[in-house]
Amino acid sequence: MSSLGGPRPAAGEQPGARPHLWAAGGALLLCGLAVLLGWVWLRWHRACGIPPGPKPRPLVGNFGHLLVPRFLRLQFWLGSGSQTDAVGQHVFLARMARVYGNIFSFFIGHRLVVVLNDFHSVREALVQQAEVFSDRPRMPLISMMTKEKGIVFAHYGPIWKQQRRFSHSTLRHFGLGKLSLEPKIIEEFRYVKEAMQKHGEAPFSPFPVIGNAVSNIICSLCFGQRFDYTNQEFKRVLDFMSRGLEICLHSQLFLINICPWFYYLPFGPFKELRQIERDITCFLKNIIKEHQESLDASNPQDFIDMYLLHMEGEKKASKCSSFDEDYLFYIIGDLFIAGTDTTTNSLLWCLLYMSLNPDVQITTSVICWLRAPVCPGWRTRAKVHEEIERVIGCDRAPSLTDKAQMPFTEATIMEVQRLSMVVPLAIPHMTSEKTVLQGYTIPKGTVVLPNLWSIHRDPAIWEKPDDFCPHRFLDDQGQLLKRETFIPFGIGKRVCMGEQLAKMELFLMFVSLMQSFTFALPEGSEKPIMTGRFGLTLAPHPFNITVSKR
Ligand code: HEM
Ligand SMILES: *[C@@H]1O[C@H](CO)[C@@H](O)[C@H](O)[C@H]1NC(C)=O
Description:
There is one protein chain. By secondary structure, the chain is of the alpha+beta class. It has helices at residues 2-5, 9-46, 64-67, 75-78, 81-87, 89-100, 119-128, 130-133, 140-146, 158-173, 182-197, 207-222, 232-250, 268-293, 303-317, 325-355, 366-370, 380-391, 407-420, 452-456, 499-516, and strands at residues 103-108, 111-116, 429-430, 435-437, 440-442, 447-450, 517-520, 533-534, 538-539, 546-549. It has two domains: 33-134 and 441-455, no CATH class; 149-421 and 456-549, CATH 1.10.630.10. β8 (533-534) and β9 (538-539) form a beta hairpin. 36% of the residues are buried. Bound molecules: protoporphyrin IX containing FE and 2-acetamido-2-deoxy-beta-D-glucopyranose (NAG). It is found in: Microsome membrane. The chain crosses the membrane at residues 21-42.
């Protein structure tokens, strides 16, 4: 039998293969039909008054590659992926706005994404139509990681509101009163200065020490303790967090959004992610438990204490409350994720702008340099030093009460924030209803990206938007101008919850460093590339500095 069957495979396969072929052919046909239908649907959708934009391609929409990790991109099919990588998504989207207008749309898969590129449309959406534009998109990967709890990715609704209101007012406590963070920040920066001075005249990278100091501030806010720069366990947890974020953004983990059960795969980044989740959970849960054991109702020390007390109060008052330990756990995670990278990078950008030789390189054009005395960015570093000397002197530590008398320093920080825009596309929003925005139809469930970067480089708002010029935030008398188009923290109901805290941190950290040191780039080093490096936030490209004591 076997010897006969061997040489005649074709004849033997004939009857069995037919159904297979049919099935395969049928499946292919069905797939093709589905793709075609999807495409027709997209084209038809375009016609229904949604904002203009490029024609969608079947199956992937327009910019699959914006969200798809590089290794998965089929360049020949999806087109100009490398172009977006080079300049950053926010710049790419701003360029598209020149073609399609300030409100435009595209599809990722079958998802409609609308990008708002100017201040008026962003304000109309996020402020005037806040009830519609304040939800967050549902992505399986994020939902699985956050259980839809916490604040940053939580859905717009009563629970988010309760949790945010409590956390927000608690954060504000840390700005003043007996829980004030001010002495903690000053103390932390004593360590930073020590660490910087160790380098003497030699150039070094400011990234690790600044990152460590900023996460310590969040730690003392959440846990009531700081960790030494050499503490291995804490370093591991910080590494885990950044590693976790990195693999979520840049690896096969993206596939979880298509097939959620990939999360449970026993290898590669899937396994790593679950390991990281377990370790961080263990670390945080332990800390929460310690707090529960030593809780003193009359003397709360930190965010966890305040939350636990509030939780007990709520439990007594009513049976169903959204405040529980699990929620606390995710909020702490959010504070770390939203509060570390953003503040660290803002401060690094400040140091970078201050290190560029302030007489020449701080402005972008040579013509400006020839007219140096009238050039807006000229002598910024020296002027900040002068102001610090005049208001604070060199013996006393800086305090928030000095801020009112230091408009130039504040304007400098604002100008650095404007140019660097560490959160260029805010955090994606989603519409919870069908609505109309400036004449365009926006369906329910549309992902909305406010392009904050393009607002802060808009020549209609900012004169010479690419130049560094703190004076644009000052009036003729040198007093601070509040400009409503300056929105690095976003606007509307989802505005950054840590805005006040971040402003306070930035001021105290920046001033305490500038008070002690003059920063410069190492002799003969090239000027770093001034466009940011896109991770979760826009970070400066690596650079080294030298410090000299003042
Ligand atoms: C310079 C530093 C910071 C910048 C530039 C910044 C910027 C932003 C932006 C643009 C958003 C998104 C707004 C939107 O979705 O429309 C945001 C959200 C948020 N930020 Fe910040 N942030 C900073 C620091 C902080 C700090 C220190 C904390 C907390 C400790 C924090 C906590 C949050 C939270 C919880 C959200 C989510 C709010 C919500 O979804 O309801 N941020 N931030
Ligand atoms: C910074 O200095 C280190 C050595 O101290 C060097 O390896 C590194 O390449 C420098 N980085 C830059 C961006 O110049």
